[in-house]
Specification:
The model has no long low-confidence stretch (mean pLDDT about 95). β3 and β4 form a beta hairpin. α13 packs across α16. The protein starts with a strand and ends with a helix. It contains 17 helices and 14 strands. The chain is globular.
Amino acid sequence: MILDSDFPPDPRVENEARVLINAGMEVNLFAFSYDKNFVPVETYKGIKVHRFYCPRLLYKLSALAYTVPLYHLLLKNKISKFISTTGCHAVHIHDIQVVRAIFMLRSKFKFKVVLDLHENRPEIMQFYKHVRSFPWKYFIYPSLWKRKEEKYVKQSDGVVVVTNQAKADIVKRTKIDEDRVVVAPNVVEENYADEQRIDQGIVDKYSNDFVLLYLGDTSERRGVQTAISAMVELRKEIDNIKLVVVGSSSYDGQLAQMIKRLELADSVDLCGWQDSGLFPSYIQASDICISPLQRNKHHDTTYANKLFQYMALGGVLLVSDSEAQADLVHSTGTGLVFKDGIVEDFVDKTLDIYKNEAARKKYSENGISAVSEKYHWEKTGQDLVNYYRNLFIC
C-alpha cells in the first residue's frame, strides 16, 4: 500500500489492511514522516509500516502534482526503494496524488496496480479554499486532475471506491468493465459499539435537552448553516431543543456570526473539534444525528464516515438528499431525508421525528441491526479480500 501521508492514523487504510491480513495476505505500507526523528520500519496491528522522511514543503507540492511532475519525480526513488525491499505483487495506491510515480516504476517491477479512490478528488477540489484563492487558482486545475484520474483508472488493474454511486460514476466516465471495480465503504468495525467508553458528563450535560447532533468538518459545503437557520423555527415548537456541533473548520467564524445574528446562543453549542473517542458520548446524548451535506458530484457519490458511527450506536438519522447517504437511510430505515439547503423541509422532518417516539425507536433499532448484519468491515471487507484473491490468480 502507498499512502502519501503519515500513519497512523488513517481508519480506511488501517481497516482495509486489517481485513487483507486476516485473510492471510502480507501488507506493507509506504508512509511519510514529517519529523526527522522517526521509526523507519515497524509493525502496527499486523501492518508492516515503512516510513520515509517527507519535508512539509514536499507534501505541499502534492497540490501541484498534476501541474508539474516535480512531486512525482521526488517520490519516485523513495517508492522504488520500498518496492525493492518488500518485493510486493500488487501496489494498492491510496488516492490519486501519487499515482504518476507508481506508473513510472511499473515496467521495472511488473506489479499489479489497484487504485483506491477515497473520494471524488477532482470534484471536491473545487471547494478547497486554497484552490479557489490567489495565486493557487492559477496553478491547480481540477479539470486536469479529473483527466489524470480517468487516465490512471483505465491503466490500473483494479479500482476501489466507497459507494455504489461512485462505482457507477467511474464506470460511466471511463468505460472500464464494472468487474474491475470493488466497493469498500468506510464502515465501522463489527464490535465498534461494544468497545466505546461513554463520558457520562457529556450525557448528563444534555440530559434535559432534545439534541440535534452534528459531528465532523464544519466547512460550508457540509451544510451546518441549514441546521442553524432551522433552529429559529424549531425552538418555537420544541422548548428544550439544542443543536450541538462537534467539529471545526475555517468556516467556524461565519457560523458563529450567524448564531449571534439569529440570537441562537442559548440554542446552539459550537463545541469545536473534540477527540474522536468522545464521539460516542455525544451520539448517546443526542436524539437526532444529522448530516446536512450540500449536494454536489462528490457528496452524491460518498458517505460521511459518521453515518455508520451514528447507526452503530443507535442514532436516529436526518440527512440531506445527497444521493449516496439518502439511499443508505432509505434502504436501512434509519431516519428521514430532507431537501438540501431547504430550511423549511429540515424543520418539517425534524418535527416529524420529534413527534413520533415509536418511529425514533424503530430508526434506532434499524441502524444497530444494519451495522450488525451488513455495514461493518468484517462483512464488507470480504469483497476486497475476494477481489485480491482473483487478482493474484489472474
